[in-house]
Design a protein that fits this description.
Chain A is α+β, with helices and mostly antiparallel strands. In chain B, helix 7 packs parallel to helix 8.
Chain lengths: 502, 309
Amino acid sequence: MASLPRRYLAAVLPLLPAERLAAAGAAPPDTPFAFIEKQRGANRIVAASACAHALGIVPGLTLADARARVPELAAFAADPTADAVALESLAEACDRYTPTLATAPPDAILLDIAGCAHFHAGEAGLAHDLGRRLARAGYTARLALADTPDAALALARFGSDDPEALPIAALGCAEETEIALRRAGLKTLGAVAARPRAALAARFGASFTTRLDRVLGREDAGIDARRSRPAIEHSVRFAEPIASVEQACHHLSRLARQACEALACRGAGGRAFCASLYRSDGQVARFDVETARPTRDAALVMRLLAERIGTLADPLDPGFGYDLVRLAVLVSEPLAEVALRLDGDARGEAALAVLLDRLRTRLGPARVSGFAAADSHIPERAAYLRALDSQAEPFDWTSIVAGLPSRPLLLLDPPEPVAVIAEVPDGPPLRFVWRARARRVIHQEGPERIAAEWWRRRDGRGRTRDYYRVEDDGGCRYWLFRHGLYGTETRQPDWYLHGLFA
Amino acid sequence: MDSQGVKSTRTGRAETAQKGGIVTAKQRKIRDFQFAMRIVLTARRVILKLEHKENRMTAIPYPSYRQPASHPLPDAGRARIALGVAALDQRLGGGLPRAALHEIYAGSDRDAAAASGFTFIIAGLAAASRCMILVRERRRHRSAGDVYAPGLAAFGIDPSQLFLVDAPDSLAALRAGADIARCRAVGAVVIALSGQTPAYDLTASRRLMLAAAETQVTTLLLRHGCTPCTSAAHSRWQVTSAAAAPLDADAPGAAVFDVRLLRLRGGMDGFQARLAWDQSHGFFAATLSGGGAALAAGGTAGGSWRRAA
């Protein structure tokens, strides 16, 4: 498939740290303040507010020098993590324009807007809308459009329209390279590009010419999208934001019907759905639901989504209202039309799958599980719990259990240490103390000797366990083991209680 | 009531007597009918009160012909779970009803395994070939031991037919349990709660009971570390572990339970028996020691022949 020509929009936020702080209400936006970091033994400024920039405070200055110029300069500790989080949340909100977007840390967002601009009266309209929304959220943005992501980013960073006119600093290459280029009298990318490529590659390496092509818009490196493009996506936009969650859910159910019709056309069913509610002030609420088997039942999807919304720790806040509601089918699988069997078994299975999906949606995917058998004779490894979404063939437990001596109903994992009186070297337990209560053994059976899995261990050793099934004077039955053979493996074997029989 | 009040009622009666002179025969008939209705309704209320039901007219069950006939009533063999001990099954009216909530309490801390075993046996009998779901609290179940798949298989339960649901707290566990009980595809649901749980009250138990009655999903509530409390469950059992008859070479025998029927709706409680699980036949058997004597003597425990509330 021939790939479509791409168009990229870069949004660079030069004042991101300062504006993040101002948006959070932690600093007044119209005062000089700066972010400092300890560099080479001095507090140096790494970012500053717009007002501080106007007063000549630039990154790299020490705090003492800056305070000499602007005595009232407030200083905050730089927090790159918070900046990254703010950038991520802005990128999340930009999802409304295109599904293919990426962040370019520390301060830029890249959007692949090929085929997405018609909603906004062309590319310029889209860029204008993005700038307006960012400005409303309190961020200054420099925007640029180009055919490659690197070109768009460079144009936005350096505030230029022509890639050829960009300074060589836009290449972002090593300092020696920059100095060498400047000494050769090459100041712009256009001048560099006019030189023979073979000579440039020989002098600065092949990666230099590649980088040059990318920044000049000749080679598209593509972007690492934050999320994959969904198979099916339906959305509805509102000229006037809707301010109630119920209404948003109503529109979601309409979208779910559309998505399920689209799935039916493809003969597929969805396994994972994602509903997104875009608030007009830039916040996005997302809900993912997954189903155990492919489905195209819109009512079921809505039930799962409603369950998800109902179990949110803090309820949905529509704020100033939602202006875009979207439903995406993230994963789809082939699903053939099936005729219901007359005995109703298929319907029962489907009902069970629906029930388990609801529980997984409400409690979390790992909270609904089933037993799986492992090929191990160590008791606690023989059976484990596995989340239901992994589809595997059922185990034949009767054949697994058939050859074994009896196993306890309840297993203590890890086994609990007990104090035992037993004959040395390998006598059965006579008395033991578990949870601060002494118990006298009346009947016992054993030992069942289980060797350690020496092939799993680097030193090829491990302690043998001697299991005893015992009954105490209270009529309770226990599963005890001696850890290690007396004399050969250990001098003082420990005893553990591993299970309780009914 | 003071003398003034008595006086006023008397004058009231005198007024009606005076008016009574001008009532027609038709009005008198209506009045008599209303009086009779009032007696009937009061009697029904009193009966309801005696049965500890909610004292509201809405609580009166519909006559059978008004029940929705969407699903056919199951035949007698499927409606009850026979436990295999004749005297016990007879006392239960042919076995435990499938479409109901049953509570199983561990007698003490040491009886957690016995209570679990008894619960899973009943769940296995109820579920037959259908699946079974265990709902438990996420943190609590650890200290008492985790259900072990090979051990379940020893009670005739296929571990691949068992699903486990971990709820964050008892309220979520009960909510999940009620949702499961409303799904017809499930054979049995076991809700394991430990410690005193205020979330499990009359309303919660009634909800589970109604769900079970509608869908025929046997709902079992397994509790330990608490004292039995009032609920709408059909039956309530207390299970303690008991000494088993030793096998050859002095080996401990198979599972034996001392069960006590603390409550049976519409039946006699205070029943005690010692039951041994017979895996080869898939039924319980009454053992001859201890509780067997009580069973032979009519199953009274402490002579309390009390009509269950």
